[in-house]
Each structure stands twice: as C-alpha cells, then as structure tokens.
What does this fold into?
Amino acid sequence: MTAATAAAKQATMAEQADIHELYQESVQNAEFELDFMQKTFKQWNKRKPKSMREDFCGTALAACEWVARDALNTAVGVDFEKSVLDWGRENNVSRLTAEQLSRLELIQDDVLEVNTGKFDMVQAFNFSYWGFKRREVMVRYFRGLREALVDDGLLFLDFFGGSECYQTQKEKRKIDDFRYNFKYIWEQAEFNALTNDLTCHIHFHFPDKSKLKKAFTYEWRVWGPAEIRDILEEAGYSKHAIYRQKFDPKTDEPLDEYIMTDKGEDYACWLGYIVAQK
Ligand SMILES: C[S@@+](CC[C@H](N)C(=O)[O-])C[C@H]1O[C@@H](n2cnc3c(N)ncnc32)[C@H](O)[C@@H]1O
It folds into this structure.
C-alpha cells in the first residue's frame, strides 16, 4: 500500500469521535449545576440535600458526580434509552469506587411512568422536559415528580428564552479544552410560530474538515417560564421561583451567575432555572 492510499484510508476525526463524549464536553457542566442545586437547597431548607434523581439522565454524568462528591449522597438516574445508559455505565459509572457505586442506581424507564423512591432533589436539565408538548402530559409529569419528592424537596428545571428561541438560527462555539479542538454547532432548524414546535440539531465539526451532522436531534415545544409556573401550581407545588442568568452590565455578555428574580430584561437569548418546592 502506498503512503498516499494509507493516508486516504485513515479514519477522519468525525469517524473516530464518540458523540456522547463530545456532548458531555460541549453541553454539560454537571459540577456547576450541582453546586447551584446544593446552594439553593441549603438556602431554601437550611439543611444539606443528600438524595437526588436525575431525569433524562443520558450518560448519568450528574448522578455519578453527585455520589462522588459526598459519602452521604445517593442518586438515581432515569432514561428510557438503553444505549446511552450503557455508554454511561462503561465511561462514567466505571470511574466510581465500589462504595460510590453502592449509592447509585440507573433505571431504564420512561420518566412519565417510573416509580422511584422519594428524593431531596430532582433535576430535569437540558430542556428535555420540553419533549412533552401537551399541557396535560406536562401536568402529569410534574404531579409524578411531586410524589417523588420528600416534604421539603425541590424540583430543578432549566429553560432558555429571549427572541432568538422563537426562530431558526445556528450558533457555533469552539471547544479548545478537550484532547483535540472541535466546533459545537447548535442549530434551531425549524420553528412553528403557531405551535411553538422547535426542531433542533447538534452538529460537530473537526479540524480535519470532517463533520458529524445531526449527532443529536430534539423535537421540543418552547415553553415559557410563566406557563411552566402555572402548570407547576396546577400540579400542586407550594412555591416556585425563577433564577435568571446575569449579564455583564458593561459588555452585555452572559455570566455564569444566576439570580432569583421576576424581572426578565429583553435580551435576545438567556438561560434560567425554575425551582419548585413540593
Ligand atoms: C438531551 S439528553 C439529556 C442528557 C443530560 N441529562 C443533560 O442534561 O444533558 C435527553 C435524554 O432524555 C432521554 N429521554 C427523552 N424522553 C424521555 C422519557 N420520556 N423518559 C426517559 N428518558 C427520556 C433521552 O433518551 C436522552 O438520553
């Protein structure tokens, strides 16, 4: 084989890449989110949370991080997709000690149907609950979660807002703190202005010009925080609050800081959390 044929046969970066690894690197920040949850729980309840359920857990990154950060912590992760749970078991769960592992359970089930015990905290992040497009289904989901919370338990949801979430658009971000550089592309490919249905894709681009197109696709309804708070009330939650991302007043750049507020300035795109108490 000539050197040229060997080079031509070499797999591209896209062919060698692992989409779950790239997803964890570019999308998730379990440490930051667990810090936020822990701090908020202590502020609301004047005690430390111990048990957590991670809904739509995927690779169970947050559940693994939760049991690793304190010997008293327990976690349950729920996802209905076997392949992503298997990836999590091989790559995240395998890094835990036997003792940490004894405080973790991963369940393959639908979050609408699953029957777990009760938890101090439940998290449903990365907008996965927006997959429930009908109000009655969202009410059912929140009622079920309420049953899965202890008396002072807290539910944590995330959301994004601003004019840009009601349109098609592409956003690129360079990831340069991984083994190799790559680009993460968030595409809002279709938006239905009557139903708020949004089709989104995640693509990855590599320095050798190879691409992983539509590595992940999501079919969501864009729910506004006011609607979600109404539904939480209907589902019986006693208290709820919004924590909105702060912006640098000088540069208008978003900051990694969230403040409890009911005032949403008219930025084109912002992130937030909704926290609800049983
Ligand atoms: C965007 S990933 C979220 C991964 C991770 N939790 C995060 O914050 O990035 C969505 C996951 O939700 C799972 N999923 C979607 N609908 C579900 C349902 N009704 N019940 C259980 N899992 C579901 C999918 O299999 C997928 O792994």
